[in-house]
Amino acid sequence: MNLIGKQTPLDRLFAQFQQLLGKERVVRAPSDLLPYECDGLTSYKQKPGLVVLPRSTAEVSHILRLCYQEGVPFVPRGAGTGLSGGALPVEGCVLVVTSLMRQILSIDYENQRVVVQPGVVNNWVTQAVSGAGFYYAPDPSSQSVCTIGGNVAENSGGVHCLKYGVTTNHVLGMKWVLPDGAVVEVGGIIPEMPGYDLCGLLVGSEGTLGIATEITLRLLKSPEAVRVLLAAFHRVEAAGATVSDIIGAGIIPAGMEIMDRLSLEAVKQAGAGSCYPEGAGAILLIEVDGMTPEVEVYSEAVTQLCFKNGAKQVQVATTPEERLQLWKGRKAAFAAMGKLSPNYYVQDGVIPRTQLPYVLAEIERLGAEYGFKVANVFHAGDGNLHPLILYDQSIPGQLEQVEHLGGEILKLCVQVGGSISGEHGIGADKRCYMPTMFSAADLETMQWVRQVFDPRNLANPTKIFPTPRTCGESAKFVLSNPQGKENLAAEVW
Amino acid sequence: MNDLLTPIVGEANIQSREGKFWVTPPTQAQMAAVVKLCHDRAWKIAIVGQGSKLHWRNPLAGADLVLSTAKLDRLVDHSQGDLTITVEAGYRFAALQSFLTQYQQCLGIDPPYREQCSIGGVVATGESGSWRHRYNSVRDQILGIKFIRSDGEIVKAGGRVVKNVAGYDLMKLLTGSYGTLGLITEVTFRLYPLPTPRVFYLCQGSAEAMQKLRSLLLRSAITPLSLDLYSPYLLQQLGYQPQWGIGIELAGVAIEFASNLLRDIAQNCGVTPQVVEGDFNRSVAHLLETPGRCKVGVPSAQALEIFAPIADRYPLQIHLGSGLGVLKGDDTWDRQYWQQELAKGGGFLSTYNSPMLSPPLQDLMTKIKQQFDPLHLFNPAGC
Fold first, then answer.
1. Residues A126 and A273 in one domain
2. Which ranges of chain B would DSSP assign to H, the alpha helix?
């Protein structure tokens, strides 16, 4: 508390939140705030002013209303697994953590939908409905820990979105708390309700337009047959060419993933890639699903295309256990980088699939130019690259260089007609690269939406959009800006 | 007005029809210049594409002039290997599908009026069709969009790649906005391999049999292109028995397997699938033509029960995957009653003429309109 007896807005909120939620669900002690000072992008850190852990829509609404009254910004957070600093606190903010809102509220198999709270972990949904023959399609690599609320905020993808789409294609409706605390219901139990598609607009808004507190998801029926093929190549370019050939042949597999030599080395060292062939320059994982005869036809065609492009061998997994084994290394790839290097920096860019060979060669060239090794693990079918730059944070200046290299890779993606983010979001990490993709007028138009939902700029301020203030200086300056004035109206364009 | 428009678009692109100037700019830049002029003069603009849906109601009401995208009909980019295409808004839907057929590709949309309608019109109204069952809605196909704001500025959102989360998803906001927020000039779509071969089956029977068939099909291994429910009245009008029916379009390499599975499931429900030659859904679309055409949404599992009281009197088509569909009423029916009935179960009935800025989201939607078009220049009849 303030020593001179004058209460700050945070002091007042602290007292009101304790009254609302009880002492256990309001965190303010500096040591208790430590776990909340960053998300999955650990190179940026900032302690929040307060952390609150609501359990219901009413509580979230109450919290945001109080923040609004005090003019204090809030930052929403799910499990904190995001990789773009979307849940990175801004100084003096209230961090609204939805991880206690973890109930699956209803399941309706006949209409193929489920209603969940935002703190429900992604793969709990599939676990809850798989017995009845259904599943929830978006499956980010972090699906065993990341939450649906976070997925909604970032419009998360996963390895199966090549065929089935990303989060936005699976959200039918939401109960949504606006930044002034008002509760609205957007979308519904049926897609395309009349009126503007607010549900589609809000998915992927990265916490800058409010917080989802109930989410209605579309369930898909589990495919009759699933087969995973693993093809080993000498060179990653050959794996990339195979991806183009498969798509060109009119086959859309459920997922297509490439891991290069360096990432294979990492997962092998981490003990997760025991079934991957030794000495391969790259592997291509292809999951084909559907009705049994089409899976057979497509698997055969895919196998032929792999060999045509010089695959050394093709393994096929049909049972769930075998498939899991083949996917295990891919899902563990990011974490396995720790075996190769003290730190790694994940980038998330998208390119047209046909540009894969050129872009991979360019990334290698850029890495060499900057003196860093870059491992590549990516959603090849979508052209969604995840270059992992290996570095050592303890060496002064390395992080800055790595960020610069990451930026160069993003610019390369845009140059070939791609995007600076496929699924991780813009967050705090990439806002300064938005002008490489969008004109000032494009960004201004997006800010019009912000004006409607959050005219006081209290919802996750400083994220997504560049400002002369944040991007005129280095992003790092902003993140540790001692004045903490970034939060409020200064952000308006 | 003519004096100011002519220097921008040239005389040949201005016509006078029904007391209004119809302006058809041949480039996006000229279109933007006309919108800027309208903005400066506060002239209200009715936006049309190929005019396929003008009969839904009069969208020209209250407008000072008509802006048509009919000459914005260029193919901007077809990236065959990436399964993406970028076209201008006036491109005809049918022409685009035939263009793509030569590459064994297609748009995953089969909208009404597909012979005549423009891409911009399909997006502005968000009209998909039966293929929605497999490919999802129009909004799910759009990767990027370019549009002219009410102040005449050309802006874009999204991109040309199949996965992209950079910035707000204005594609979703513009889809189905009936031209009330911006004038769509260019759209990038994801494409799909052409679904061939194809076969269409019709199953007819009692409401109970159809309910069972619906449930079993949705849970089966079959992944049809379309799965639609038809009212007895609709099928009678097409020369079939006056019974409920479900139409299933199958496609792809497993078509025989799927056909056999369908026959087994249908037998289990006491019905026999019949192959229908020709374009069945086109005949259905003709029957559902306005006047009286309404868009409806119901929870799919409740569709048969909800519409039972009027199924013998009105043509009705419900896409069973989504619960969306079309109902054609007439002068004698109580539309308001049905609007309320459907709303009770979380559904809706709308009359196809505007994005319906209805409560309880009216406030937010009105604010969006106000922010994007403060002078209310675009489609004054639309909201």
1. no
2. 2-9, 28-41, 93-101, 119-125, 132-135, 170-174, 207-219, 232-237, 255-268, 280-287, 303-307, 335-344, 362-372
**What ipTM, to 2 d.p.?**
0.96
The residue among A97, A124, A139 that closes a domain is: A97
> In this structure, are A424 and A437 located in the same domain?
no
Half-sphere exposure of B330 (CA within 13 A, CB side): 6
What is the rounded distance in angstroms from the CA atom of residue A268 to the CA atom of residue A330? 11
In a domain, A453, yes or no: yes
CA dihedral B25, B26, B28, B31 (to 10 degrees): -10
Residue B259 CB burial class (10 angstroms; 0-12, 13-18, ≥19):
middle
**From residue A418, how far is each of A246, A435, B165 by CA, in Å?**
20, 14, 11
In a domain, A1, yes or no: no
For residue A282, is pLDDT > 50? Answer: yes
Q: Which of B107, B102, B105, B104 is nearest to B117 (CA)?
A: B107
Question: Are A247 and B81 within 8 A, CB to CB?
Answer: yes
- Determine contact, residues A120/A384, Cβ cutoff 8 Å: no
The answer to whether the Cα torsion of A7, A13, A17, A23 is positive or negative is: negative
Contacts of A449 in chain B (CB under 8 A): 168, 170, 173, 368, 371
Question: What's the distance, Cα to Cα, between the start and end of chain B in Å?
Answer: 25
Q: Which two tokens stand for residue A325?
A: 């084994």
Among the candidates A37, A65, A97, a domain finishes at A97
**Higher per-residue pLDDT: A149 or A248:** A149
Which residues does chain B have within 8 Å of residue A190's beta carbon, measured at their own beta carbons? 297-299, 322-324, 346-348
List the structure tokens of B238: 């097409």
Mean pLDDT of chain A: 92
Between chains, do A353 and B81 touch, taking CB under 8 Å as contact? yes
Nearest CA of chain B to the CA of A378: how many Å? Answer: 13
Residue A467's pLDDT is 77
Buried b (16+ CB within 10 A) or exposed e, A236-258: bbbbbbbbbbbbbebbbbbbbbb
Instruction: Show the CA angle centred on residue A216, arms to residues B137 and A450, nearest 5°.
Output: 75
Domain containing residue A315: 224-429
* CB–CB contact A434 B167 (8 Å): yes
Q: How far apart are CA B159 and CA A350, in angstroms?
A: 10
Q: How confident is the model at residue A3 (pLDDT cuts 50, 70, 90)?
A: low
The answer to whether residues A334 and A257 belong to one domain is: yes
pLDDT at residue B290 in the model:
80
Say if B347 is an interface residue toward chain A (CB within 8 Å).
yes
A181 and A279 fall within a common domain:
no
Span A183-216, pLDDT tens digits: 999 999 999 888 899 999 999 999 999 999 999 9
Q: What is the mean pLDDT of residues A452-456?
A: 97
Dist. CA A448–CA A462, nearest whole Å: 16
pLDDT tens-digit profile of A362-418?
Answer: 999 999 999 999 999 999 999 999 999 999 999 999 999 999 999 999 999 999 999
CB neighbours of residue A489 within 10 Å: 12
Instruction: Kindly give the parts of chain B with pLDDT less than 50.
Output: none
Domain total for chain A?
4
| CB contact B78 to A (< 8 Å) | no
Which tokens sit at B76? 């901007």
What lies within 8 Å, CB to CB, of B283 at 6+ separation is B238
* Mutant choice from A197, A296, A299 vs B, greatest count of B C-beta within 10 A: A197
Which residue is it, tokens 């060419």? A241
- Do A216 and A261 have their domain in common? no
* A55 and A175 part of one domain: no
Question: A184, A211 in Cβ contact below 8 A?
Answer: no
Residue A2 lies in a domain: no
